[in-house]
Structures are given as structure tokens and as C-alpha cells.
Design a protein that fits this description.
The protein contains 2 helices and 2 strands, in the order αββα. The protein is α+β, with helices and mostly antiparallel strands. The radius of gyration is 17 Å and the shape is flat.
């Protein structure tokens, strides 16, 4: 049986998102933005440091990751 949807699917070991190549994207926000248009995103949890991210896709991914990490764990280890 032919599965056309499986033909264009990336292999399981492929990264879910390509790494950003902009200088300073993902760097700690301890000073001024490394490039114009970067936004600070604070990590999840008390005392989590902020990092500089490109406005748009990179910032959205960072905010989403921080929000997911903030979801409380259930007893037994699941979320």
C-alpha cells in the first residue's frame, strides 16, 4: 500500500525546527539587545533568566517552551 503522506515526511531524527543563524539569538539578556528587533523572553520558573530572541518565530518558540515548562507535573512524572 502506498502512503503518499509518508513520502514527504522528514526522518524521525530530523530536528523539529531549524536552528536560527542570527547572531545573538538565544543569548542571555544581561545587557542591550545584540541586534535590532530582538525581544527578551523570560524563562519558566522563579528566577529563570531572560534571553534575547528574534522577533517572530524564534520568540514564539521560546515563549511556548517556557509556558510548557511552567505546566505543573502530575504525581508519577506526567504533565
Amino acid at each position: 500500500m502506498t502512503r503518499p503522506w509518508a513520502q514527504s515526511r522528514p526522518p524521525a531524527e530530523a530536528a523539529a525546527a531549524a536552528r536560527c543563524t542570527v547572531d545573538g539569538c538565544g543569548s542571555e539578556a544581561t545587557g542591550p539587545a545584540p541586534s535590532a528587533g530582538m525581544v527578551p523572553v523570560t524563562g519558566a520558573g522563579d528566577g529563570a533568566g531572560a534571553h534575547w530572541w528574534c522577533a517572530g518565530r524564534c520568540a514564539v518558540l521560546a515563549r511556548t517552551r517556557a509556558e510548557l515548562r511552567a505546566v505543573p507535573m502530575r504525581s508519577g512524572g506526567g504533565r
